[in-house]
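Onboarding guide, step 5: your first structure request.
Type a short instruction followed by the sequence, for example:

Predict the 3D structure of this protein.
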Amino acid sequence: MNQTEVPSQSNLLSAAERRQLLEEWNATELELPKASRIDELIEQRAQETAEDPALICRDRQLSYSELNARANQLASRLRNLGVEAETLVGICVERSLEMVVGLLAIVKSGGAYVPLDPAYPKERLAFMLEDSKPLVVLTQTPLLDALPKTTAHMLCVDKLGFESSSDCSSQHKEAQNSKKEQHEANERSAGRPGPQQPRSEKGCEIFSRRWHNWARCGLGRPALRSLAGPD
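The system replies with C-alpha coordinates like these:
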Protein backbone atom coordinates (compact mmCIF):
# COMPACT_ATOMS: atom_id res chain seq x y z
CA MET A 1 0.00 0.00 0.00
CA ASN A 2 1.44 3.37 -0.96
CA GLN A 3 0.89 6.65 0.85
CA THR A 4 -1.86 7.81 -1.52
CA GLU A 5 -4.04 4.70 -1.12
CA VAL A 6 -7.01 4.59 1.24
CA PRO A 7 -6.70 1.56 3.59
CA SER A 8 -10.23 0.39 2.77
CA GLN A 9 -9.39 0.31 -0.95
CA SER A 10 -6.08 -1.54 -0.69
CA ASN A 11 -5.74 -5.26 -1.43
CA LEU A 12 -3.89 -7.04 1.35
CA LEU A 13 -4.37 -10.43 -0.31
CA SER A 14 -3.17 -11.61 -3.65
CA ALA A 15 -5.71 -12.85 -6.18
CA ALA A 16 -4.77 -16.47 -5.39
CA GLU A 17 -5.09 -15.92 -1.62
CA ARG A 18 -8.44 -14.19 -2.04
CA ARG A 19 -9.76 -17.05 -4.23
CA GLN A 20 -8.60 -19.62 -1.68
CA LEU A 21 -10.17 -17.75 1.24
CA LEU A 22 -13.51 -16.92 -0.38
CA GLU A 23 -14.04 -19.81 -2.77
CA GLU A 24 -11.92 -22.90 -2.08
CA TRP A 25 -12.25 -22.93 1.71
CA ASN A 26 -15.99 -22.25 1.46
CA ALA A 27 -16.66 -25.06 -1.01
CA THR A 28 -18.49 -27.14 1.59
CA GLU A 29 -21.54 -28.18 -0.44
CA LEU A 30 -22.64 -31.77 0.11
CA GLU A 31 -24.99 -33.77 -2.07
CA LEU A 32 -27.77 -35.00 0.20
CA PRO A 33 -30.17 -37.72 -0.97
CA LYS A 34 -33.61 -36.28 -0.29
CA ALA A 35 -35.23 -39.68 0.24
CA SER A 36 -32.83 -40.79 2.98
CA ARG A 37 -33.57 -40.36 6.68
CA ILE A 38 -31.25 -40.52 9.66
CA ASP A 39 -32.26 -44.09 10.51
CA GLU A 40 -31.61 -45.23 6.93
CA LEU A 41 -28.19 -43.57 6.94
CA ILE A 42 -27.25 -45.38 10.16
CA GLU A 43 -28.45 -48.67 8.68
CA GLN A 44 -26.34 -48.03 5.59
CA ARG A 45 -23.25 -47.48 7.71
CA ALA A 46 -24.06 -50.57 9.78
CA GLN A 47 -23.90 -52.62 6.58
CA GLU A 48 -20.86 -50.93 5.02
CA THR A 49 -18.63 -50.27 8.07
CA ALA A 50 -20.25 -52.28 10.84
CA GLU A 51 -17.41 -52.17 13.35
CA ASP A 52 -16.47 -48.51 12.93
CA PRO A 53 -17.22 -46.44 16.05
CA ALA A 54 -20.46 -44.51 15.66
CA LEU A 55 -20.67 -42.94 19.13
CA ILE A 56 -18.10 -42.26 21.83
CA CYS A 57 -19.12 -41.02 25.27
CA ARG A 58 -16.39 -40.88 27.90
CA ASP A 59 -15.07 -44.44 28.22
CA ARG A 60 -17.97 -46.05 26.34
CA GLN A 61 -18.60 -46.43 22.65
CA LEU A 62 -20.93 -48.12 20.18
CA SER A 63 -20.14 -49.30 16.69
CA TYR A 64 -22.59 -48.66 13.86
CA SER A 65 -23.81 -52.26 14.01
CA GLU A 66 -24.35 -52.03 17.78
CA LEU A 67 -26.11 -48.66 17.52
CA ASN A 68 -28.41 -49.89 14.75
CA ALA A 69 -29.14 -53.19 16.51
CA ARG A 70 -30.01 -51.54 19.83
CA ALA A 71 -32.22 -48.98 18.13
CA ASN A 72 -34.01 -51.74 16.21
CA GLN A 73 -34.64 -53.71 19.40
CA LEU A 74 -35.89 -50.69 21.31
CA ALA A 75 -38.10 -49.70 18.36
CA SER A 76 -39.61 -53.19 18.44
CA ARG A 77 -40.22 -52.80 22.19
CA LEU A 78 -41.94 -49.46 21.57
CA ARG A 79 -44.20 -50.95 18.92
CA ASN A 80 -45.12 -53.77 21.30
CA LEU A 81 -46.20 -51.09 23.78
CA GLY A 82 -48.50 -49.58 21.15
CA VAL A 83 -46.31 -46.94 19.52
CA GLU A 84 -47.24 -46.40 15.88
CA ALA A 85 -47.39 -43.54 13.39
CA GLU A 86 -47.72 -40.16 15.16
CA THR A 87 -47.72 -41.70 18.66
CA LEU A 88 -46.00 -39.36 21.13
CA VAL A 89 -43.02 -40.79 23.01
CA GLY A 90 -41.33 -38.74 25.71
CA ILE A 91 -37.58 -38.98 26.22
CA CYS A 92 -35.98 -37.76 29.45
CA VAL A 93 -32.35 -38.89 29.59
CA GLU A 94 -28.95 -37.36 30.23
CA ARG A 95 -26.59 -36.90 27.28
CA SER A 96 -25.35 -40.42 26.76
CA LEU A 97 -25.24 -43.32 24.34
CA GLU A 98 -28.75 -44.21 25.51
CA MET A 99 -30.03 -40.80 24.42
CA VAL A 100 -29.03 -41.42 20.79
CA VAL A 101 -30.30 -45.00 20.88
CA GLY A 102 -33.63 -43.75 22.25
CA LEU A 103 -34.08 -41.00 19.66
CA LEU A 104 -33.19 -43.34 16.81
CA ALA A 105 -35.58 -45.99 18.13
CA ILE A 106 -38.46 -43.51 18.27
CA VAL A 107 -37.86 -42.59 14.63
CA LYS A 108 -37.68 -46.27 13.64
CA SER A 109 -40.93 -47.04 15.47
CA GLY A 110 -42.76 -44.27 13.60
CA GLY A 111 -43.48 -42.23 16.71
CA ALA A 112 -42.82 -38.55 17.40
CA TYR A 113 -40.52 -37.69 20.25
CA VAL A 114 -41.26 -35.23 23.06
CA PRO A 115 -37.98 -33.90 24.54
CA LEU A 116 -38.06 -33.68 28.34
CA ASP A 117 -34.92 -32.04 29.69
CA PRO A 118 -33.94 -33.60 33.06
CA ALA A 119 -32.70 -30.15 34.13
CA TYR A 120 -36.21 -28.68 33.94
CA PRO A 121 -38.07 -28.07 37.23
CA LYS A 122 -40.43 -30.87 38.17
CA GLU A 123 -43.41 -28.55 37.70
CA ARG A 124 -42.32 -27.81 34.14
CA LEU A 125 -41.95 -31.51 33.35
CA ALA A 126 -45.37 -32.20 34.87
CA PHE A 127 -46.95 -29.56 32.60
CA MET A 128 -45.21 -30.96 29.50
CA LEU A 129 -46.32 -34.52 30.29
CA GLU A 130 -49.89 -33.41 30.93
CA ASP A 131 -49.96 -31.30 27.79
CA SER A 132 -48.47 -33.90 25.41
CA LYS A 133 -49.76 -37.09 27.09
CA PRO A 134 -47.09 -39.41 25.65
CA LEU A 135 -47.86 -43.11 25.53
CA VAL A 136 -44.33 -44.04 26.63
CA VAL A 137 -41.51 -42.13 28.32
CA LEU A 138 -37.93 -43.27 27.79
CA THR A 139 -35.74 -42.42 30.77
CA GLN A 140 -32.88 -43.67 32.97
CA THR A 141 -33.07 -45.25 36.41
CA PRO A 142 -31.39 -42.34 38.29
CA LEU A 143 -34.00 -39.94 36.85
CA LEU A 144 -37.11 -41.87 37.93
CA ASP A 145 -37.52 -40.02 41.23
CA ALA A 146 -37.14 -36.65 39.51
CA LEU A 147 -39.97 -37.29 37.07
CA PRO A 148 -43.53 -36.38 38.06
CA LYS A 149 -46.29 -38.95 38.11
CA THR A 150 -47.69 -39.77 34.71
CA THR A 151 -49.96 -42.32 33.08
CA ALA A 152 -47.30 -43.00 30.45
CA HIS A 153 -45.41 -46.29 30.47
CA MET A 154 -41.94 -45.63 31.92
CA LEU A 155 -39.14 -47.47 30.11
CA CYS A 156 -35.59 -47.22 31.47
CA VAL A 157 -33.21 -47.47 28.53
CA ASP A 158 -30.23 -48.17 30.80
CA LYS A 159 -31.86 -51.36 32.09
CA LEU A 160 -32.77 -52.97 28.77
CA GLY A 161 -30.96 -56.19 27.95
CA PHE A 162 -29.83 -55.68 24.37
CA GLU A 163 -29.08 -58.71 22.24
CA SER A 164 -26.13 -59.00 19.89
CA SER A 165 -26.59 -57.55 16.41
CA SER A 166 -26.67 -61.05 14.89
CA ASP A 167 -29.73 -61.93 16.98
CA CYS A 168 -32.01 -59.13 15.81
CA SER A 169 -32.30 -59.69 12.06
CA SER A 170 -36.02 -60.45 12.29
CA GLN A 171 -36.59 -57.32 14.39
CA HIS A 172 -34.61 -55.28 11.87
CA LYS A 173 -36.75 -56.64 9.02
CA GLU A 174 -39.92 -55.81 10.92
CA ALA A 175 -38.69 -52.25 11.46
CA GLN A 176 -37.88 -51.89 7.77
CA ASN A 177 -41.31 -53.14 6.68
CA SER A 178 -43.22 -50.75 8.93
CA LYS A 179 -41.11 -47.59 8.67
CA LYS A 180 -42.13 -46.54 5.16
CA GLU A 181 -45.86 -46.50 5.86
CA GLN A 182 -45.40 -44.76 9.17
CA HIS A 183 -43.04 -42.15 7.75
CA GLU A 184 -45.48 -41.40 4.93
CA ALA A 185 -48.29 -41.04 7.45
CA ASN A 186 -46.23 -38.49 9.36
CA GLU A 187 -45.46 -36.59 6.17
CA ARG A 188 -49.13 -36.44 5.16
CA SER A 189 -50.15 -35.09 8.55
CA ALA A 190 -47.36 -32.50 8.83
CA GLY A 191 -48.82 -29.07 9.48
CA ARG A 192 -52.30 -30.37 10.23
CA PRO A 193 -53.56 -28.85 13.50
CA GLY A 194 -54.58 -31.19 16.28
CA PRO A 195 -55.26 -31.03 20.02
CA GLN A 196 -51.97 -32.58 21.13
CA GLN A 197 -49.71 -33.18 18.17
CA PRO A 198 -48.61 -29.95 16.42
CA ARG A 199 -45.54 -29.52 18.63
CA SER A 200 -44.40 -33.12 18.24
CA GLU A 201 -44.92 -33.14 14.47
CA LYS A 202 -42.74 -30.07 14.15
CA GLY A 203 -40.15 -31.57 16.48
CA CYS A 204 -40.04 -34.83 14.57
CA GLU A 205 -39.61 -32.94 11.29
CA ILE A 206 -36.73 -30.88 12.69
CA PHE A 207 -35.08 -34.01 14.06
CA SER A 208 -35.14 -35.79 10.71
CA ARG A 209 -33.83 -32.87 8.69
CA ARG A 210 -31.14 -31.46 10.97
CA TRP A 211 -29.73 -34.75 12.25
CA HIS A 212 -29.81 -36.09 8.70
CA ASN A 213 -27.54 -33.24 7.59
CA TRP A 214 -25.28 -33.67 10.62
CA ALA A 215 -24.89 -37.40 10.04
CA ARG A 216 -24.24 -36.98 6.32
CA CYS A 217 -21.46 -34.48 7.03
CA GLY A 218 -19.83 -37.05 9.31
CA LEU A 219 -19.95 -40.00 6.91
CA GLY A 220 -16.35 -39.47 5.84
CA ARG A 221 -15.07 -39.16 9.40
CA PRO A 222 -14.03 -41.97 11.75
CA ALA A 223 -16.78 -41.35 14.30
CA LEU A 224 -19.47 -38.95 15.46
CA ARG A 225 -17.58 -38.14 18.62
CA SER A 226 -19.77 -35.37 20.03
CA LEU A 227 -23.11 -36.26 21.54
CA ALA A 228 -23.96 -32.56 21.66
CA GLY A 229 -24.80 -32.51 17.96
CA PRO A 230 -26.75 -29.60 16.48
CA ASP A 231 -28.45 -27.10 18.75
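Each response can be followed by summary notes, for example: The domain at 39-159+168-217 is CATH 3.40.50.980 (Rossmann fold).
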